[in-house]
Each structure stands twice: as C-alpha cells, then as structure tokens.
Amino acid sequence: MRHGLRLRLRDLGAGAAFASMGVSGQLPVWTLALYGLALLCALMGRRLFGRRAKLTALLLLVVAVVLGMNVLAGSLNLVVAACAFAGLISAHRLLSTPEPATDGQVHLSGLLMVAGGAALTGELTYGVCLVAFGVLSSMSLALGVVEAAVPEGEPVPVRQVMRPLATGLTFAVAGAVAFFILFPRLNWNMMGPRAAPGLGAATTGFSNTVRLGGAGTIKGNPRIVLRATLDPAPDKENLDAYWVGRTYDIFDGQEWTNVGGARGTGDWMVTLRPGSEGLIHQRVELLPAYGASTLVALETPSRLGNAASHTQTGSRRARIQELGGGEVRFLDPGIAFSYEAYSLPPGGSGDSFQKLPANEQDALLTLPENIDPRVAQTAARVLNGEREPLAAAQKLAAWLQRENSYTLELGGDVEDPLADFLFERKAGHCEHFATALTLMLRTQGFRARLATGFFGGERVNDVYIVRAGDAHAWTHVLVPGRGFVTVDATPPAHRASQASEFLQDLLGFYESLEERWRSAVVDYSFRDQLDVARALVRPPKGSDEDESPSRLPPLRAWATALVAGAVTYGVWRRLARFLGRERPHDATRFVDAVEAQLASARLERHEGETLEELDARLAREHHPLSPALSPITRRYLEARFGGRPLRQGESAELLATLKRAIAADARRAAAEERAPRARRAS
C-alpha cells in the first residue's frame, strides 16, 4: 500500500503521545481501553469511522459533556478530563478516512496529548514517550512530503529516502536539544509540580497497629518508596542506618498498639527533642509507592518541617502533627510528599524518656496477660544476672540470632505467635525478632519498645533511595543517661530488602536514569543555563589560568566558538542546497508517470519521439490507445505551457484511464495471437 508505512508511523506516534499521558496513571481506565482498541484497529487498517463521521462526532460531543459534568461534580480533575478528551479526539481521527486534513489533525492531537502528559507527570517514562512521539511523527511527516513528490501510481522509494530522512531527523533533534539548553526558560517545577499516582498500587505504609504473624511479603518488593539527600553526605554506597517512622509500646499477644494520642492540632514544624551539634540534615521525598502519610527520618529525629503535599493539581505547603509513639503525620492529603528533617548523630536520644507522658513511660514495661512463662525463664537464663540495659539487649539479640532462623515463609495466624516463634517454629521475620527481644527485656525489668520504619539506603548519584523491601522493625531499649538506643535482633543479612538482585539492579539503573532526567530536564532552569554559559567562557577553578589572568578569552571559549561556527556553517550549506535546488514542475512529474506507463505498453517508439509526436502518430494510425492518450497530452501541454494547472486528483484519473486502455490493448493483442493457433489446431 502506497501510504501504509506513513500511516503506521503516524498512528504509532499518536500512540506514544497518548502513552505520555497514560504513564501518569491518572487517566480513567475506560479511556485507556478505548484508545488501545482504536490504535489496534488503526494499525490493522480498519478505519471504522470513515463512513460514520457525523454520527461518531456526535458521540464524541456526548462524551465531552459527560466529562464536563464529572468535572463540575468534582469527581474528575479538569486537567485529567482535558487530557482524556484529547485522547478520544485522537482515537476518532485515527479511525477516520486517511486524508491530508485528517493527518494534520492526528499530529495536532498528538501535540496536545504530549502537552497534557507534561502537565500530569514529569517522570522519565514521559520523556521516553515524548522522544518516541517526536521521532515517529517526524518520520511520518517527512514521508508525506516524499509521497507528494512521487507521481500517483508510482511506488514510494522508501529505502532510498530513509537515510536522508534519518540525517534530517538527527539535525532536528540536535536543534531541539540546543534550543532547550540555550533558550531562556523556567524550571519545570516552578510551573507547579504535579504528582502522579503511578501505574501500580502503593506497596507500603504505616498503620495504627503491627500484627504479628503471616508472611513478610513486603520484604521482596523492590519498588522505591523514598528519596533522600543527606548533609553531610556519608561516603557510603549503602547505608547501615535506620529510618524511623513510629514506635509501639503495648502488645496484647497478637498485635502492637500505642497508648499515646495526638499532640497539638498541627503546625508547619514539629520538634521531637532538642537539637545538638552535628545534626544530620535530610531532604526527603516520599514517592506515590510509599502509600502513607507518616514522615520518616534517620534515627534519632530532632525536628521535621518545611513540608509540602503534592497532588495531581499541584503542590502546596502542608501542616504536620505529632502523634503517640513519636509519629509525625501529614494533615493534608497528597499523592506524594516532601519535607526536611534534622536528626541527632548516632549514639542515643538524650533525655527523650523524661519528655514522655507518664502513661507512655509505664507502658514500656507492660506485658500481655497470657504471656508464656517460658519467655521470662529463657530471658533470665540467657542474661545470667546481667543488669546493664544495653549489654542485656545485645546479649539477648545475639542469642535470638543464634537460636532462631530468618524466614518469610510463614503460615497464617497462630494463638500465641511469640511462643510459636521462640519455642515451636523457631523461625520468623523482623517483626518476630523485634517483638521477642522487646518482651524478653521487659520480663527482666528493662524498659523497651518496638520501632518500625526502614533499614538501609542505596546511593544513586547524589541521592539515597529506600525500597519497600527495606521495611523493618527493631527494638529501642532505654539506657540511663543516653535515652533510647537501637538494638536489632534480626540477622544483619536480612535487614534490608530481600528482593531479587536482578530486579534491584534493574530498578537501580532506572532510578539512576530517572535522577539524571530530573536534574538535567525537570529541574533544569535559567540558573543552570547561566552555569553552562559560565563554564564555556571561564576556566575551571584551581587551573593555572586563574593564577595568570589574560585579557584574551580562554582556549575553551575559542574552541566552543569554532565548533558552533562550524555547525552553523554546515547547517546553512545544507539548507541552502536543499532550498536552492530546482523543484520539478507538477506537469513534468505527470508526464514522467505517463511515460512510465507507456513503457509497459506494446508500442514502437521512434528515437527521440516526444509525447506530442507519439499522440499525433497514434491518432493517424487509429491506434486503440489514442482515445486515452489524446486528453492526457492536451492536459499536459495546458498545465505545462498554458497556465491551466492540473486539478487535485485529475492526474490520477487520467493515469487510471491510460492504464485501463493499455491493459485492454494487451488483452486484444493476446486474443489475436491465440486465434491463428486455434484455427491451425482445428
């Protein structure tokens, strides 16, 4: 098919534009299904709306009214509704009869969808879809130009033009990159950053309780739930740090709860404990996969604030509130969150115990009513008279790691999960180890509590990422003069994520690309442009040129100017050659197509015989092709020299008439050749 490749590239480009919106996860599911079906039909060449243009346009209008009513009712965001409608317009055009006007509308709707995708998300997946749309649509438009230059009925030389098209596309992409880097612009986030819920459900979160038992399936989940920038930045690829979210002090034999309630009505900043020298500053971004509103920070958090809630419609400053167990939550809803935190350096939490209300202090020694007596007996036997809290906790943790194994494969709930872990199954995950250590300490009179959050952190560029599989539970033991100190009974090899190493490497590679995309594109601003310009004209810091300044520009400035001049000259030469070449006349292309068809006919052409001379000779000889060739010759002469250009589609009609005449003449000649043979045979 003459237009097959161009139409497929056009349709795939529109699909990439729609995907730039779909990756945000905000479009209604029915919109994704309808567009996917329309794209599939279009790629198969089934233009279902070709003969029902008015009816389908009316249906599209009805859908627009429904979307508008949902927006007015508050059930659908205005930007999301506009993006969904742009996708439906594109789907309608994909299924319509291919025409120049339809092609333009498909490309225009693609641009609208790309703009909509930028409003919904700025993630790396959007960038991939943007590049795919640009390449596919540009190739489709270029092939359209080539098709227009090829006479009707002639095949399009796709293989011959692909190389120059690819070269032109490369120059276009390079120009777009240069325009992006050099043209004054605003930071993407200054236009109001938006958060997208993503394509998958949230994978982790904090609840008011921790129930003991069941499989620890979350440990195998490699999804990234938070990013954090630390100052001072540790010189480590992997952190051996704890990110605390909240603590629990009451265990009833099955689940952990907290006796504390909300403290205050919410504020822009929460101070959990006095600061000190050497605070660790953290800029934390909770991603949509996090699925909770609890702030986490490195142990031991001192102050949290400067919080923002990110939604589909933008970002705004958010209030936070302290709850029981040292938990701090966002009061404003959001898909993602960002905030700053300051944590004390490792080594303890100061006098934080004295700040706890009396009921929370007493709760640090409570035990379940039906606790198995073997728990206290075993703890006393292991401690063997040890009365120093930290030493006792470390002794019990070492015993647990030695006597019990780590596993994520556990059955359902049991009547006494602690006794089952310690004396029956002797295997469990982090919640079992932390619960056992906390309660064994309490049976010996040591105050302790359960803490939950995350363990670890993997460095990607200048940011540390934490995965859902890094979710963890450990123990806080109260040490006089130091406050609460972390002791972890879980075997060290099983504290961080237990996900597949291949999946973690794959997601780590993606996150590295994502981080570069964020810094080089999403967060690229006018200030960055100034830095690029300064880097081109100023020598690096510490170089010899700093010590001996010169009035002449530095060498790198000359080199940059030389390269820029060479590129500009090369582009100018190519454009001048392209624009200056003579374009064949429409009538010339028409007569070339006529000559190509006549070459397949059974005609004896005299050397140097023109089309006009051939037409006159055939008319004298009363040749069967003369009735078809005469109007073609007349229209060629009128179009070429008489100022009467060919109408749209006229050349195709004349060529089709000539083709049918040639075919009829061939059949007549074949019949004449068969007749004598038939007579001789009879």
Ordered list of secondary-structure elements with their pairings:
Elements (H helix, E strand, L loop, with lengths): L3 H19 L6 H15 L9 H21 L4 H17 L5 H21 L3 H26 L8 H25 L27 E2 L12 E8 L10 E7 L1 E2 L3 E3 L5 E5 L1 E3 L8 E7 L10 E2 L2 E11 L2 E4 L2 E3 L5 E3 L5 E8 L8 H4 L2 H6 L9 H11 L5 H15 L1 E2 L10 H8 L2 E2 L1 H14 L4 E8 L2 E3 L2 E5 L3 E9 L3 E5 L13 H22 L3 H12 L6 H4 L7 H26 L5 H14 L11 H10 L5 H16 L8 H32 L1
Parallel strand pairs: 15-16
Antiparallel strand pairs: 1-5, 2-8, 2-19, 3-9, 3-17, 4-5, 6-12, 7-10, 8-14, 10-11, 10-14, 12-13, 17-20, 18-19, 20-21
By DSSP, the count of extended strands is 21
Report the sheet-strand fraction.
Answer: 5-15%
Shape: elongated
Q: How would you classify the helix and strand content by structural class?
A: alpha+beta
**Overall pLDDT:** 81
Radius of gyration: 37 Å
Q: Please, how many helices?
A: 21
Most strands sheet: 8 strands, antiparallel
Features:
alpha+beta; 4 domains; 8-stranded antiparallel beta sheet; 5-stranded antiparallel beta sheet; single chain; 21 helices; 682 residues
Task: Explain what this protein looks like in three dimensions.
The protein has 682 residues and is an alpha+beta fold. The chain is built from 21 helices and 21 strands. The longest helix has 32 residues, at 650-681. The model is unreliable at 187-193 and 543-552 (pLDDT under 50).
Summarize the structure.
The protein is an alpha+beta fold and 682 residues long.
